[in-house]
Amino acid sequence: MSDLRPDPDALLASLKRAEVQSRRGQLKIFFGMSPGVGKTFAMLRAAQQESKEGVDLVVGVVETHGRAETEALLAGLPVIPRKRIEYRGTQLTEMDLEAILQRKPKLVLVDEFAHTNAPGSRHPKRYQDVIELLDAGIDVYTTLNVQHIESRADTVRQITGVTVQETLPDSVFELATQIELIDLPPETLLERLREGKVYLGNRAVAAAEGFFKDAHLTALRELALRFVAERVDKQLRNLRASGPIKTIWRSGERLLVAVGPSPSSLQLVRWTRRMAAAQGASWMAVSVESSRPLEPPDARRLEQNLALARELGAEVVMTRDDDIAGALVRVALQNNATQIVVGKSRSPRWLDLLRGGSLVDRLLRCSGGIDIYVVPAERSAEKATPWLTVRMLERSPAAEYGEVGMVLGILTLVSWFIAPHLGYLVVGLFYLLAVIALSLRVGRGPVFAAGVASALTWNFLFIPPLFTFVTGKFEDGMMFGTYFAVALIAGQLTARIRSSERNERLREERATALFHLTRALSAARTLDDAVSAALRQAESLFSAQASLLLDTEGAGGLTPHAASSYPLSEKERGVADWVWRNRKKAGRFTDTLPFAEGFHLPLVRDETTAGVLVIRVAPESTLSLAQRDLAESFAAQLALVVEREQLRAAGEREKLLAESEKLHRALLDGVSHELKTPLAVLSAASESMVLADNPTRDRLTAEIGMATRRLHRLVNNLLDQTRLESGALRPRLDWCDAHDLVNAAADSVRDSLTGHPFDTSIPDEMPLFRADFALMEQVIANLLLNAAFHTPEGTPIFLAAGVEEGKQRVFFTVADRGPGLPEAMKDRLFKKFQRGDEARAGGLGLGLSIIRGFVVAQGGEVVAGQNPGGGAVFTVYLPYAPHGEVPDE
Fold first, then answer.
1. The dihedral of CA 204, 209, 215, 220: what is its sign?
2. pLDDT for 668-681, tens place per residue?
3. What is the radius of gyration, based on Cα positions, of the chain?
4. pLDDT of 608-655, one tens digit each?
5. DSSP code of 247?
6. Distance (Å, whole) CA 153 – CA 163
7. Strand 107-110 vs strand 90-94: parallel, antiparallel, or unpaired?
8. Is 730 left (phi over 0), alpha (psi -120 to 50) or beta?
9. Residue 190 to residues 65, 67, 214: CA-CA distances in angstroms?
């Protein structure tokens, strides 16, 4: 009996294979400020170390540029031979991606990440090759200069005056799991250039006079250092956001400015921008939305303040909390902000004390190691706030006040009957419990009303002397005052906790909404699926209609997506067009074109605008600042998806162009060959006829005739294919005789049939049928030529014609005894420029394509199959109607 227990070694190997198959490769980029800093050298040195540790690696492509020390590091590393690609008569070499995928190493070295591949390659860009390697689970080492980063290309052009043609999308750079910065002082790099270690000969002279200048290299060095520092800072912030971190890590300066609806916030934003520029630090603007709604003028002013912060380069963050100081510190800790900038309070000192201290005082108490900057407002910026101004409480519906009245009324009625037995002190405790319980259900205004009303009712109805607001005992008065304070404080504290919980829930809902959006977008297989998912989520989240307009073809115009639920009027289309061209939001809830029905947001990515997202809520509804900020996040995520799709489409277009170029070269080579052969015959024969004798002249005349007929067929095939593709072919149907048709076709190719036994089988009583005689002659002639050309000399060719048993169609069959039809050719047999893999040299692959076009134009069809005795069979079917049933013309 066989042992059914699993083999542990086989099971372990299976698990390892499954792990490798599911693993995505790791990308390491050796990053530098310019050519010559030693990126390739560092990559090869790291590869040598990996090789010593036993890592299976290969060199996909490495450009040494003739540098001896770099070439020395290649020694001992296995190199995949490059693929040769012919382009316009020149032999080019590129990385052999197919060979690497077949070899399946653990690590591959790919130099020059932003390189453009030669036409005819598998991908137009080398970074697309790298992505395919990563998807296959292969680790990649590569090199890149800062000038090739898409978002830095314009800055590099301004610095050096050089326009970089080969760029890498920032989203591809983000795939890197490790960045190694190769830094070199400009003076050292210039010395290497003079020693010929960067470029050689005239190229080194040109580089020294142009790109390689001390000022240029210093600026590029700073650009590269800042770019890597920004990436590390982003990784640090993500790391801090993943856990409860309560301290600031001063790895770099980062400023945070509190922005509110006050006019003095404009001054704060500008001051913070100047400070950030002076320190070379990043900065962010934070707006804290409390439970108290803003008046429309204040909301518009806050929107203007945040818009200024965005224009000046700030990262804008919006959060909800009633504790503004706590919210600012929380956001600062999450983003590792080392400095908080706030305005100086202009309220009276005693009023700030009643409120628990000013914003600055509360920040100083809870900020820990964060620096606090207090900027006084200019006198012209804001008038002093009157100290008697009452802060508006959160508006509560009338139903909550009604609930308070009903609860207190029922409790008062019950207490009236139990007070004589339990005493008025117990009634007071009942009232206090009711106030705290109500604070769990209603807002601050109703809780405040419940505290005041319960205290007065308790005093008036239950504390002796009854039915007065006078307390007979000092102890009762103290107890009443204490109750009053405890009821108000407990109710307000409970309401504040509820408000904080509600704000936390709203923040969680925002994070959840973005999570669901990103998950849906990443799961979408096509752009249509992604757009449909995003629009449905936007409609559900904002209770609105949504529309997306895309510049899908890059043709300078917007097209509404089919998944849009909001049909745009001409006016709304005009607003969307303005947003698209100016890359700024507009419409409702903004100061630009505010009378529009929709809220229009641009899909901005780097320097382009891919489209416009339009959200329309009901006229009686509104979007809060937090909801508008969430809508902008939706637009940013959609912009990423559209950019990804555009990159994929660009890759497909490059593939198509490469295939078109390949087909063009094949056609040109084929036509040149087909013309060259008969022309050479004509030239040689005409020169030989001058001195030839009569027998030789007869032979040469025959050769000239054959070459002329070959040229005639070639030109006719090209013209016929052009007629078919342009739709200019119009068949002239007339009554045709099969015998005459076959004889004419066979006579036209008689010279090609020489060497092949040729036989026909046509019934004597074969009726007339309607067809275009000239077209059918070419069809049969091409079938005979095809049989003669693709079969060995001496093999027979057979032609048969007749009427099907049902007398619905006539047929013409050409059979041969050649090698038959390859299985792989069946799907593309009748396509133009298609030739069998084993076909002899010569021919353009147009014959069968023309046959099918001519037959289909006459309402028929062509069927190809295998001859049972070996060889191929082609049958042409045409509609048949008896001659006697055709009306006279």
1. negative
2. 555 555 566 666 66
3. 42
4. 788 899 999 988 888 877 788 888 888 888 888 887 777 777 777 776
5. S
6. 8
7. unpaired
8. beta
9. 17, 16, 8
Strands 545-550 and 608-616: antiparallel
Strand-strand pairing, 27-32 and 178-182: parallel
Question: What is the b/e burial string over 397-428, where b = at least 16 CB atoms within 10 angstroms of the residue's CB?
Answer: eeebbebbeebbeebbeebeeebeeeebeebb
HEC-encoded secondary structure of 403-423: HHHHHHHHHHHHHHHHHHHHC
Residue with tokens 């999450």: 334
Residue 282, pLDDT above cutoff 80: yes
- Residue with tokens 């076959």, as numbered in its chain: 742
What is d(CA 601, CA 586) in angstroms, rounded to the nearest whole number?
Answer: 7
State how far the Cα of 581 lies from the Cα of 572, in Å rounded to an integer: 14
pLDDT tens track for 689-736: 766 777 777 777 777 776 676 666 666 655 655 555 556 667 888 899
| DSSP one-letter code for 639 | H
Residue type, 618: A
Is residue 32 a contact partner of residue 224, using CB atoms and an 8 Å limit?
A: yes
Q: How far apart are CA 60 and CA 133, in angstroms?
A: 11
Q: How far apart are CA 768 and CA 763, in angstroms?
A: 12
Tell me, what amino acid is at 94?
Answer: E
The Cα–Cα gap between 612 and 596 comes to: 14
pTM of the model: 0.48
Sequential DSSP letters for 154-166:
HHHHHHHS-----
How far is 477 from 480, CA to CA, in rounded Å?
5
CB atoms within 10 A of CB 832: 19
Task: Output DSSP code: residue 884.
Answer: G
Measured CA angle at 758 (ends 756, 759), to 5 deg: 160
pLDDT in the model for residue 387: 38
